[in-house]
Amino acid sequence: MSKEEFASKLQNFMNLQGVDVRASTVIEMFVAEGLLNIEGSNIYAPREIAMGASSGGKFISGNNSTSETKTTKIVASGNAQIVGTGNTAIVQDSGGSIRFFVGKKESK
What is the pLDDT of residues 11-27, one digit of tens each? Predict the structure, then answer.
């Protein structure tokens, strides 16, 4: 891998570690290319949380992280992780559902 390719790969990386992220309605986290890593963090939005990755992306949520809406909660305790790569998504919605998508997301 060339120096330029290595630098390009580093540009597509976000690490949320030990943070509290709160929104008044919805949080959407989608990775088109690269990596979104969430560790030891708490994500909260009362209505909906959506995490996903397209074919060139990857998300990891875990290592003592929570993702919570008013009606749903995902807890990844200890070394537990949820990993999504290539056209995957998790949606926690206002109706109390948690949906996992692999491949093309179907419309509601």
Answer: 788 999 999 999 999 99
